[in-house]
Amino acid sequence: MGWLCLLFLLLTTCQFNSTCSSSSNSSSSLSSRHLCHPHDSSALLQFKNSFSIDTFSEQELYNGTTLYSNSTITWQKGKDCCVWSGVTCEKMTGHVIGLNLYFGGLQGNIHSNSSLFSLGHLKRLDLSRNDFRGSPISSKFGGFVSMTHLDLSYSNFSGPIPSEISHLSNLVSLNLSQYSLSVVRLDFNRIVQNLTNLKELQLNSVDMSSVVPNSFKNLSSSLTTLRLFNCHLQGKFPESIFHRPNLRLVDLFYNYNLTGYFPKSNWSSPLEVLDLSHTRISVDWHHLTRNFKSLRALYLSNCSFVGSYLAFVGNLTQIKRLDLSSNSFGGQIPWSLFLNLERLVSLNLCGNNYVGQFPEVDSNSTSISSLYDFSKQQLVGPIPRHLTDLYLYGNQLNGTIPSWLGSLPSLEGLALGSNQLSGNIIEFQSRSLSWLDLNDNKLDGLIPRSIFELENLQSLDLSSNNLSGTVEFEKFAKLQSLSYLDLSSNHLSLSFNHLSNNSWPQLYSLALSSCNISEFPYFLRASPNLDRLNLSYNRIQGEVPKWFWDVAKDSLSTLDLSHNFLKGTAQHLRWKNLGYLNLHNNSLQGELPIPSPSTFFFSISNNQLTGEMPPTICSLISIVVLDLSNNKLRGKIHQCIGNFSQSLSVLDLRNNKFHGVIPGTFSKGNVLRNLDLNGNQLEGSLPPTLLTCRELEVLDLGNNKIQGTFPNWLESLPKLQVLILRSNKFYGEIGIPETKFPFQKLRIMDLSYNRFNGLLPTKYFEHLTAMTNSQEHELKYMGEGYYQDTVVVTIKGFEIEMVKIQTFFTTIDFSNNTFRGEISKVIGKLKLLKGLNFSHNELTGTIPPSFGDMCNLEWLDLSSNRLFGDIPEQLVNLTSLEKFNVSENRLMGPIPHGKQFDTFDYDSYTRNVGLCGLPLSKTCGAHQPPPSSFQQEDELEHGNGFDWKVVLMGYASRVVIGISVGYLVLSNGTTDWLVKVIGRKQRRRTVEITQRRT
């Protein structure tokens, strides 16, 4: 009986388990299907169909690979939306609770009636990295009451962030990072007060200039991540934020006007990542290192430090990444402090003023102790094998690159560019290196063999050194991950002779300027991702091969072929996305080619182009710099050029054969900064619409046939620094200013070779502030990063083309007109003036003694006037004066002597019969009778027993003080310049000096 009972129990149990198992499997099968709710499926399809889908619209370059994403490709009617890519459903109901369309290629607007807002059960929504074409963020987003994660970042939304976002009280993560969004103070206060569960807040690049930083005090105590990069925050950042118990990451990078301090009380913060770069928050190392001992990444680029900036860095025992770049730190690099941080893998000290050499290390040592040898004044310790990234770019380090850097087993990035390192490049034993930057040093010798074996190398910059030798380009064959290569400006000779089917498919940027190349590299035809190509300053001759016009025609954005020997035409510009095109200084012929409408920089100057401007030039709606100078172009200047109001900054058409009138279509709000029409055949008067060019700094209209009276109305242009009207048909008196502060920033004024008359414009001279007071404390040049202004001026009797205009260069040239009357003493107040030329006029009166106050004057030409009286003794104080000419006047009395006056020769004083003393042959007697006012006889050139050897000795040994050499060989010391005698007028020499534009 007992056995029967036991058997029954076992059978019953087995049957029950089987039934349960079957029931469980059936339930599991049902729940795994979780068919999409029909309403949600329809809403998703309607949402998808409201956009155009571009799988190529969003691109990222990651490890040399272009990535594309299109989540909606699997969305098809009739299929379960719960299995669609990017869609997550609730298992029991089938409602959509998650939608991830990151990099979805969506293009279009999101309107308030979008079907998206009918998905009322959404908890997670990611629409980041799409293109919603400036749509505002709809207030309907505030209706997702169950939302916990919302990411709308970098999807081209615009306008204010709606206050309805504050209704999402369940939000844990909010990312609205966007360049064209803003948030007002009241709406932000509502957001931080109502989102009490928020852990992650990311508002990078959102305009928060109206938000008071104290508002952040109301953020949730659960906050772990706070990203506020480039938000225009201003005011004092609350110290209490750093006391948050769960805060792990704070990013305040690029908020220049944000101030504040670290709390001074003792506490322990769990903060792991802190970025205060480019803020004005005071960094106190003592409090930072004492309280933030959990820091793994610390970014303090361009910060304000209090106290000893590295005294307590050793307390950061967990630190892995440390950025102290751009802080003007100087002296020796405290290597012992950094290498004691045993977890440190990345160190960035770029853009400081560190000096000295690299330390020695002991390859056999394993202990980091006694790292500093005071007898050698340098570090002696173990190899820092933990380093993966070392950035020392832009300091003043010298000596050689130590061999131990090449043996670091995990080194991935090494940046030593823009220092003063010399010697050979070391061999790299490690194969982990992916980024190497040694540009702008004094390194010499050959490129080491090991570099050609770095198979993981993605970026290599060896430019601007003294490397030599012939390099067969096939040596780079193993570097298949290479995306950036720059070998420019060395003494290398590159050869492509042995290349067969070699290609570098990931190549993104290639710069081979000044590499002695004689042909177009044929491997470029297989470079589909090429974005930037620089083959300038080589010796490539002949016509551009046909295959080259198709190189990377869908991706190329920058092309520089300047300073070669290219011939033929350039009519086949097929690049669709070209932004920068430089064909300057070749021998191209034919008509003017027009690049794609996306081009913002186009220079084809110094060629042999002919013909007229084609109408297609009007398609350059994005143009910023248009340089067609020094060609043989003719015809009229298209009126449409004046319509490029919102983009055109530089228009350089000088030295062509354009005729007609200057376009009068410059509209209000234009950004034109440089207008150079010098050396054409333009006629008529100046268009009044030039007055709308409020950004204009350079106006050069010299050597044309423009007529009219002096354009007084130009005086109101607030930024005008260069005004050249020489060699035109202007006439009449200049008169007095029409505004209260005329020409305040004017530094170069050339009105020579016109028909101006009347008195000198003394009232204008009184207001030339830029020639009186200087705010420049360092050598700078006019222009922009990719274009430097050029001007032709007369310096010491020579016409010189300054391919760089120094910001402290000042000159006035009113020569060859018919000005009359006296020279005002007020000119002596122009103490920054380098040159003054009033020659060949009808000026009378005396030379003002106040000229002796112009302490920077280097040349003074008052010749061919009717000046009388003596030469003021005060001029002897002009110790920078190198060229002085008062010839052909009615001056009298002894010539001053001493200092620079002992260096001026006979030609400075000729045809002044009343002058006497050296270097003239006429001696000054005790009672020298004054000459008659009309006496014009030439002086005797010989006599009185004067010994010319004395003059020659004095002249040869003179001290030439000034900046004239700087005008010819500019600041970088380049001697690649050309002197060309042009010839202009009797007794005048003209020289054109050109230099490569850097």
Description of the structure:
With 998 residues, this protein is mainly β. Helix content is 8%, strand content 23%. It is built from 8 helices and 71 strands. The chain has a 32-stranded mixed sheet, with no helix packed on it. A 5-stranded parallel sheet has the order 52-54-56-62-64, with no helix packed on it. The chain has a 4-stranded parallel sheet with strand order 14-16-18-20. It is globular. The N and C termini lie far apart (108 Å). The N terminus and C terminus are likely disordered.
CATH architectural type of one domain: Alpha-Beta Horseshoe
How large a portion of the residues is in β-strands, by DSSP E?
A: 15-25%
* Alpha-carbon distance between the two ends: 108 Å
Portion of residues in helices?
Answer: under 10%
Indicate the low-confidence ranges by residue numbers: 1-32, 57-68, 366-380, 929-998
Short description:
Among the domains are: 540-685, Alpha-Beta Horseshoe (Leucine-rich repeat, LRR (right-handed beta-alpha superhelix)), CATH 3.80.10; 705-843 and 963-998, Leucine-rich repeat, LRR (right-handed beta-alpha superhelix), CATH 3.80.10. It has eight helices and 71 strands. The strands form 15 sheets. It has a 32-stranded mixed β-sheet, with no helix packed on it.
